[in-house]
């Protein structure tokens, strides 16, 4: 791969992360509303059925947040490339991508919005370089750029892009629906590795996008497993710091308590302080423990309709509530066990450092 290709890939991923960082609070807020509605309601035929009008209203608020997820992603990917003039076309065409349109009434959802976000951003960036009369320049960012971008790319999307993108989406959905045996385990391992590999960084965000895209298509298993996996690294490290007292000092045990609390909300970043002090061993333990739990979770068919994890999200788990908790604890236990084996005692480590310094 050439240096230019690597640079472009890095830029595209940076823009993607910008979109993810803006849309995550939207989907988390909406998911929390779903979780609240499920506390007294039921889950039937892929939809939440609230127990009364009050919870129906709460659910509707959550649904509004969920429906905004795709437009926000599209708009802020476009914004990362083309700045403010790209926002309006991004919101509009992101909404279009998430709803049926055209003679065949096709929608492309997450994938369509992702592609449109990039196209809008670069189209706007190109338009900003046009040489136009000075008298028209003030109207470019608020009138001409949003109007032309929305019209041109909207038409291109409806008449050129919807069919092939929809075919790709349906192909992925069919593949996921037909997974069984070894393939299910491999998907679970992949989800677990991505959830733990960078402790809530770009890999985790990529997994977030993948699982939410599938959830938008009515596939809740990968989302449920991923949400469980997000909580495992901080839970495992927190338990290890408290239980393996000969391998962690007093300061680590204080970090362990914080890590445990962060795990309750599925905040993987709770394991970062431990990775900062002993990256190799922390990474090995967390990745293996989370990957194993991910594989088991997929076999158990854990499914969740909310976009956050940890114990706080258990009310949003519609299939395998018990397994959600048990598999999470299994993953955490594996982390503790691996660290008990590979992490040296504090005294041993201190002696080695003294010898090395001499």
Descriptive tags:
358 residues; two-stranded antiparallel sheet; 13 helices; 74% helix; globular
Spell out the blueprint of helices and strands.
Layout: H1 3-38, E1 42-44, E2 47-49, H2 53-82, H3 87-97, H4 109-127, H5 140-177, H6 182-197, H7 202-216, H8 221-243, H9 250-264, H10 272-277, H11 279-300, E3 303-304, E4 317-319, H12 321-342, H13 346-357
Antiparallel strand pairs: 1-2, 3-4
Helix pairs in contact: 1-2, 2-3, 2-4, 3-4, 3-5, 4-5, 6-7, 6-8, 6-11, 7-8, 8-9, 8-11, 8-12, 11-12
Taking all residues together, what is the mean pLDDT? 88
Range of strand content: under 5%
Strand order of the largest sheet: 1-2
Task: Identify the overall geometry.
Answer: globular
Low-pLDDT residue intervals, each spanning 5 or more residues: none
Query: Which class of secondary structure composition applies to the elements?
Result: mainly alpha
Give the end-to-end Cα distance, rounded to a whole number of Å: 44 Å
Give the biggest sheet: 2 strands, antiparallel
Helix content: over 70%
Summarize the helix and strand pattern as letters: HEEHHHHHHHHHHEEHH
- Give the count of helical stretches: 13
Total beta-strand segments = 4
Query: Could you tell me the radius of gyration in angstroms?
Result: 23 Å
